[in-house]
Amino acid sequence: MNLRSQRRDDVDLNITPLIDVVFLLLIFFMVSTTFERESEINITLPEASEEYTETKLDSIEIAVDAEGRVYVNEQSLVNSQLSTIREAMRDAMHDLDDPPVVISADAKATYQLVVKVMDAARQLGLVRITFATQEIEDEDE
Asked: What percentage of residues in the chain have a pLDDT greater than 70?
């Protein structure tokens, strides 16, 4: 028979590695967080609805076709360079004070050309930019 008292070891819990893991997770989440970025160009996106509104005469209408030609108020431009687009828009402004710009781009037009048109408008101080859309007919009807 063993009458000796059994010796119990004290249990120690070392929390230093746990604190290290918590700090690493905190640093990871701080570094990987994305912050909201605001755009420099304010764009008013139109809603496609059943209502048809006439474009006002005090707006600048710009059309971009699939072949890369640009039209300002139905006048064809000689090329699609930024300076040419900007000068045509300046001529179309006349004496209008901050006219809205309506961009009608073909679905197959290049994104770069639409951005050029928007950049030309921004350089002239025109910030009220809208995009013309057409109503999608329901296939269920």
From this structure: 73
Tell me whether strands 75-76 and 60-64 are parallel, antiparallel or unpaired.
Answer: unpaired
CATH number of 122's domain: 3.30.420.270
Task: Give the full edge-to-edge strand order of the sheet including 70-72.
Answer: 75-76, 70-72, 60-64, 101-105, 129-131
pLDDT tens digit string along 84-103?
999 999 998 887 888 899 99
HSE, side-chain direction, 13 A CA sphere, residue 113:
21
- List of E strands, 7-138: 60-64, 70-72, 75-76, 101-105, 129-131
The amino acid present at 92, given as its one-letter code, is A
Do residues 46 and 133 lie in contact, with contact meaning Cβ atoms separated by under 8 Å? yes
The residues facing 70 across adjacent strands are: 64
Range of the domain at 94: 60-131
> Considering its fold, how many domains does the chain have in total?
1
Give, for 87, the enclosing helix (H) or strand (E): helix 82-93
pTM of the model: 0.57
Query: Is 116 inside a domain boundary?
Result: yes
